[in-house]
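[job 0412] stage=complex_fold ligand=zinc ion status=START
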Amino acid sequence: MTLAKIHKIIYSNSAYLTLNNNTRTTLMGLPSKRRTKQSKRDRASHFALTPKQFIDCPKCKHPTLPHRACAFCGTYRGRQIIKTKEPRKSK
Ligand SMILES: [Zn+2]
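[job 0412] stage=complex_fold status=DONE, emitting structure tokens
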């Protein structure tokens, strides 16, 4: 197959449009089949978000994420992990 034939096949494809100034643009893909209500809703059944679980920091009682250093006082399991500018007082 010659290069000219390959070009002819590629550019005769409906995915390409030939404009007046001979530049080619590609079109976006379109869905080939209509998506039913059921299939749409089946897919959306996994979209629900779960709320974040918080624990109270044992030191300052500020709500923090579990297994992470407290963002408020910077301690984790009783040790100072993050340096805070000045030690914040508990509530
Ligand atoms: Zn804390």
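The radius of gyration is 30 Å.
[job 0412] exit 0
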